[in-house]
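task queued by scheduler; priority normal; single chain, no ligands, no partner chains; default sampling; output format set to structure tokens
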Amino acid sequence: MNRLGRAVTCRRRGRGSPRCTAGRLRHTGHTPQGKASSGPLAAGDQSPGKCRPVKVADVTGPRIAIGPRPWDGITAVVREAGGEPAGIGPDADALVWLDAADLDGLTKALAAAPAARWVQLPYAGVELVAQAGLLDSARTWTCAKGAYAEPVAEHALMLALAGLRGLRHRLRASSWGTAAGESLYDQPVTILGGGGIAAALIELLTPMRAQVTVVRRQPGAVPGAARTLQTGQLAEALPDARVVFVALALTPGTERIIGAPELAAMGPDAWLVNVARGRHVDTQALVDALRSRSIGGAALDVTDPEPLPDGHPLWDLDNAIITPHTADTPEMIRRMLGRRIARNVAAFAAGRPLEGLVDPAAGY
């Protein structure tokens, strides 16, 4: 008997075998003609190739509700990982939620599935769910933190190099111009955040011999970083940094973590790269710093407000590079989130630890 105590039907083994559907029964073997049974058939049963229903221990996986609407192929992902796709209701053991913006739907789904002990969220950032008061310690919550780390880190490095190499200007040039550009090799960089994106970014920076300082909430060294500071020591990590990467979770404590004082502490040739959330940065303070050229530039995949409206001053600044929150595209997200869901369904079914755990108290 499995830990959930439910029964299912199963398929007869062999090419083209029909499904054995004897209610809450399943076969234990079938006998090809001229061969001994591979399962315990009743004595005297000589029917070749037939499946004899026998009551057996239940082997059903956990019932996984998917909402608000399943993506193409996601039910197959759940089933192949050992789960049983189910509707959102009182029998669901877990809930996989695929639309982070549908908070009203998530609220209703949680109420309709009170027995769901685990909830999988689709994004790395869970600030909207936290602000809605939905995170609770009665359930296990996971998100996509770390699942998209590699392409986001790749995008962050691309933005940094584009800024240092002056690509915004060169992409709009209509004449040869003058030589310009800086290398990131052997340069000091600072990363705000010590999670999956930071780890992937450090891996990319390692061949460049960059001297990495990580600023994070929790104490303890980060592998690959030359030094690790806590958030209260942020001011120490800014003056010498050639690039400051923002790659941390958005919480009330990290909103506007980069404001006028932090921008003033950065060097005149330093670039700010934000691939986390727009509200980490005081936008007006950033516009002022870029206009006065007190920093080298800013490369942003996220903005506040977002989308950044037409006519906003950031669009016209020649030391600002903006991409429309495309460090991880929908195509990337579906593929990588599917892998995370598969691993977590398998782990949930086996009683193993889940990936991407959310701390309801911390809000990420």
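post-processing summary
- The first strand starts at residue 10 and ends at 11.
- Residues 1-51, 54-59 have pLDDT under 50 and may be disordered.
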